[in-house]
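Marked as duplicate of an earlier ticket. Keeping the data here for the record.
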Amino acid sequence: MLSSDESSPVSPPHITMYYDGSVWSDTFVILGFTDWHLASDSIGQVWALFVGSEDCHIWYDMCVDTTWTGPYIVCTYPTYDQVMSSNITVGPQGTRWAGGTAYTTSGYQIFLTYSDTNGTWTDSLIMGPRISHIPGGKLSDLISDNLGNIWIAWNDDSLGSYYAAYLDTNRNWSPYYQLTHYSSGTIAWGACKITVDRENKIWVVYDKDSNFYYRVWDGNIWSQEDSIVSSPARAVRDGDIFYDATRNRIWLSFKYGTAIADSLYVVWADPSQNISEKEKIATNLDISIFPNPVKGKLNIDFYLYKRINLRIMLYDVVGRLEKTIFSGKAGVGFFKKSIVINELPKGIYFLYIEDGNNYKVEKVVILK
């Protein structure tokens, strides 16, 4: 725990929870401040990293089973200057890496630190890129690739550019790769996210000029910049990207529309192909599926906001159609459907809901 000369960060609480495959846990209220990030390590601990109210610290809290044990200080930046961002990732050997940005009198400084496989953090800091003073920029994302290189992405608003680089396993920095250029002097909000796929390709997405773009590093060169959707798509602080190893997909979330009437969209891509708009969160209906996992009878409640052509089908894990639950025109209002699933083998199934233009998929677990 904290020693007597250290105090917990004064902050609003941060609320988190977890999903065990069937239900969400109760919420956990723990101390925090800004730039929250969560990661799990190789021994099942969940780490929360955040910036506290003290200007020079990055903090962490660690959850073992359901008990949060902190907060603790990860590192102290060696001046009085403000630490502005924090990120965490776990390498393939179980080493935890944390990164942040500190405001200094000579500019913004990106820095990293790391732990051993037991979770003991080093006192040393590894200095990374320096960002110009005005208007600034910050570390946007941090991730370990499959070889143990630590990738970072950041923005420099004074130069109007997003960048990426990696720290190799010998603790040497790669060149700083300029990913794209946007209008200098504007604030990019650090909306540049990284993930890595099973082939160790690095995927970076970012928003600029009211559009969403991506580039891919194959180990030698970056792909050409390409847009994901047509204008106006915005990431601001709400976009994210991650790699789904189970389905071998790159998933991306972003906002689309005007600031007053934004909708949240999700797209995915097979890493062997370009990103294309393949799945959107349907906005014409609210749907509830219960119980899940299920024995005997599955209940489906949904509310339609407008008259649409609606199809609801149940597929098995390899894509075979097992049941057509509804197919036809449906008007505005509340509907209930129940299906008996006793004859189906236990396992994972997918409920496919389509409204003619959009669709969504919900996982259903059948028990015996």
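See parent ticket for discussion. The first strand starts at residue 13 and ends at 16.
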